[in-house]
TrEMBL record:
Leader peptide range in chain numbering: none
Domain (VOC) ranges: 15-49
Designated name of the protein: VOC domain-containing protein
Gene3D superfamilies, A to Z: 2,3-Dihydroxybiphenyl 1,2-Dioxygenase, domain 1
Coiled coil regions, renumbered to chain: none
Length: 49
C-alpha cells in the first residue's frame, strides 16, 4: 500500500473553481482547454472574457 493510502487523512486533489486567462487568440485557447482539461468558459464579454 502506498504511503498516502495508509494515512488516516489522505491528500485530496484540488479542483478548479475559478481561473482567468489572457490571450489574443481566444477561440484557439478555449478549444485547447476544453479538449485538454474539460474546462468550459462561463462568461464572454465584449472587452474580455
Amino acid at each position: 500500500m502506498s504511503e498516502n493510502r495508509s494515512r488516516r487523512n489522505p491528500i485530496t486533489r484540488p479542483v478548479f473553481h475559478h481561473t482567468t486567462f489572457a490571450t489574443n487568440r481566444l477561440d484557439e485557447m478555449v478549444a485547447f482547454y476544453e479538449a485538454i482539461a474539460g474546462l468550459e468558459p462561463v462568461f464572454y464579454g465584449d472587452e474580455g472574457a
